[in-house]
TrEMBL record, chains A, B:
PANTHER family: PEPTIDYL-TRNA HYDROLASE 2, PEPTIDYL-TRNA HYDROLASE 2, MITOCHONDRIAL. It comes from the Archaea. Gene3D superfamilies: Bit1. Its EC number is 3.1.1.29. Pfam families: PTH2. One of its GO terms (cellular component) is cytosol. It comes from Halodesulfurarchaeum formicicum. Keywords: Hydrolase. Belongs to the PTH2 family. This is Peptidyl-tRNA hydrolase. GO terms for molecular function: peptidyl-tRNA hydrolase activity.
Amino acid sequence: MKQAIVVRSDLDMGTGKLAAQVAHAALSGYEDAPADAQKEWKNQGQRKVVLEITGERALFEVHENAKAAGLPTALIRDAGRTQLDPDTPTTVSVGPAGNDAVDRITGSLSLF
Amino acid sequence: MKQAIVVRSDLDMGTGKLAAQVAHAALSGYEDAPADAQKEWKNQGQRKVVLEITGERALFEVHENAKAAGLPTALIRDAGRTQLDPDTPTTVSVGPAGNDAVDRITGSLSLF
């Protein structure tokens, strides 16, 4: 099992800010997963991959595709106190779920 | 309330890897928190700050200080498949907990 966290590389986020957004997406996606998936993923070491994407539209599409496939997913918007405009969508998590199911949604994206 | 995630800046981690380690620490620290703290922190928007630190020893110290103060905390070691030696300690989370309690442990560290 794994969880993919997809981050926009077209925003001007510093490393710390980007990491906080990824953590936010990871936790919210985890909470969206069924209890048995949560448990199994943690038992396997809660594997995560961070992937990059360009643009708001492509990010929304990942989120919609994950929802349509019935996978846990969360879309994070930045509160916008620093660096970005308020409510800028920054990240989407897909999973935790089976590797193949996650790859069907995010398999074409590159590691960040 | 907030959660601080402290990351070593003396390791040669790429941005994606660093973000994954931060997410790992955030989730493990969240799981270490009492249910009422989890809930209140989420209701407040699960505020996170990512801070930097230099060296393994200083990282361990943050973890020990958080434990001694009774705060939720998690120390993450990298599995070491890429970029780092196996079991390299990379990140420590402190909280979710009250802002003042977290600041007593991490208040001297800079934003990443």
